[in-house]
Structure formats: C-alpha cells, structure tokens
UniProtKB/TrEMBL annotation:
<dbReference type="InterPro" id="IPR000792">
    <property type="entry name" value="Tscrpt_reg_LuxR_C"/>
</dbReference>
<dbReference type="Pfam" id="PF00196">
    <property type="entry name" value="GerE"/>
</dbReference>
<feature type="domain" description="HTH luxR-type">
    <location>
        <begin position="154"/>
        <end position="219"/>
    </location>
</feature>
<dbReference type="InterPro" id="IPR035965">
    <property type="entry name" value="PAS-like_dom_sf"/>
</dbReference>
<keyword id="KW-0805">Transcription regulation</keyword>
<dbReference type="GO" id="GO:0003677">
    <property type="term" value="F:DNA binding"/>
</dbReference>
<keyword id="KW-0238">DNA-binding</keyword>
<dbReference type="InterPro" id="IPR000014">
    <property type="entry name" value="PAS"/>
</dbReference>
<dbReference type="Pfam" id="PF13426">
    <property type="entry name" value="PAS_9"/>
</dbReference>
<protein>
    <submittedName>
        <fullName>LuxR C-terminal-related transcriptional regulator</fullName>
    </submittedName>
</protein>
<feature type="domain" description="PAS">
    <location>
        <begin position="1"/>
        <end position="46"/>
    </location>
</feature>
<dbReference type="GO" id="GO:0006355">
    <property type="term" value="P:regulation of DNA-templated transcription"/>
</dbReference>
<dbReference type="InterPro" id="IPR016032">
    <property type="entry name" value="Sig_transdc_resp-reg_C-effctor"/>
</dbReference>
<dbReference type="InterPro" id="IPR036388">
    <property type="entry name" value="WH-like_DNA-bd_sf"/>
</dbReference>
<keyword id="KW-0804">Transcription</keyword>
Length: 221
C-alpha cells in the first residue's frame, strides 16, 4: 500500500506526509522535500514528531502520542483540515494548511494517515499582523501614545514620505519582509531596510507595527 501511495503522490504540487498508526513516517513526496527541506531518505522511518513538530497559532505544541489526527483515525472519525506551523530543515517557520485522509490497512487497527499540505505562510502572517494592528489601534483608533489617527486625507502624515518610501510602506502593510520588498523593487535588502528606518523616523514611529497601523488608518495599502 505504501508503494502505491508513493506513486500516487509522487508528482503532486502539494506536499504529502504519510504516517502509520504508530506515528512513524512512511511517505514523504518531492513537494514535501521542496517545502520543508528534508529528503525522503532523511525522514522515512522516523517518528512524525521528530520532523513535524507542529504548533498552532497560540504557540501550543500539537505533536505527541495523543495527537488529535491519530486519535480521530483510531476512532474512525474524520480528521478536520487545519493550519499548523512547523520549522523547515534550516529553521525557518512555515505555516501550512493541512488536509488529511486516512487509508485503511490490512486490519482495523492498521492505517496510513496522509497529510496533504501547502504553504500559507504569507496569508497567516498577514492575518496575525492585522490582528495586532487592530489591537494597536483599539476600538477608538488611538495609538499607544494616546494620539488620534482620524485626520482627513488632506492632513495625512504620509505626505512627508517620498514616492519610493510610500511604495515600501505599502509592502510593509501587506506583511512583506525586507528581503521580499527588495525582490519586488529590485533593490538590495539593505536599501529596503534603510527605507523602512527613514519611514519610521519621518512619521515619528518606533516599530514597523506602528507603521502598519498608520498605513491602515490612512488606507495606504
């Protein structure tokens, strides 16, 4: 059965991780290698938690002997899709959306649980950032220093920024990193960081999160 599953998922765009009833990895396709960085030879036969140390948005670790997908599979219950955070081989955080199918084995207690996943890092990080912005602004639109941010467009503080700095601020508001901004604008990462520092200085801000709050208050995104 494992060889058949390997063939089925060999050329899929989404990553595929197969785990047996004992939490041992039995399947790891090419897309999984590209996304996470481990080769199949490095993970096949290892406990799932060694490679797939999963956390949720609250930072709670989800892997272990009583993980909910395995429990659901043993009880012959459907396994719900979910968003998880893992780390790649080089230590980079990676958010994934995971759908799971359970493939029965030769006995009721035997099965292969196949996690099919794709990268949703940008989407999740943007949602987390927006949540922080909403908390920062509060229901009345106040900044942490007590100042209000409800001035009309004609009084927008963003007018002190150069066109390039306004462009960079838009990318920041979308949750882009300095490296991603540099790639989009065909500039160096150092130059992108310098633009960010100038934006903060001109607006009298201290953090990128405050800059995002300003951008959203003045609909600059």
């Amino acid at each position: 059965m494992t060889s058949s599953l390997t063939e089925i998922f060999a050329n899929t765009a989404d990553g595929a991780l197969g785990v047996d009833q004992d939490h041992m990895i039995t399947l790891w396709n090419g897309a999984a290698e590209r996304l996470v960085g481990y080769t199949a030879a490095e993970v096949i036969g290892r406990p799932c938690s060694d490679v797939w140390s999963v956390k949720n948005r609250a930072g709670c670790r989800l892997c272990g002997s009583d993980c909910s997908p395995i429990t659901s599979a043993r009880n012959e219950e459907p396994v719900e899709g979910r968003e998880i955070m893992i780390h790649t081989k080089v230590g980079r955080p990676l958010w994934l959306h995971v759908s799971t199918i359970v493939v029965p084995g030769g006995a009721p207690s035997l099965f292969t649980m196949v996690h099919i996943f794709h990268d949703v890092t940008r989407q999740v990080e943007t949602e987390i950032l927006l949540g922080k912005v909403q908390s920062l602004l509060g229901s009345e639109g106040d900044l942490p220093d007590g100042s209000r941010m409800s001035a009309p467009e004609s009084a927008s503080p963003l007018k002190v920024l150069t066109p390039r700095e306004q462009q960079v601020l838009r990318f920041i508001a979308h949750g882009e990193s300095a490296k991603e901004i540099a790639k989009q604008l065909h500039i160096s990462t150092t130059t992108a960081r310098n633009h960010t520092q100038k934006i903060l200085a001109k607006l009298g801000l201290h953090t990128k999160l405050e800059a995002v709050a300003v951008a959203f208050r003045y609909k600059h995104f």
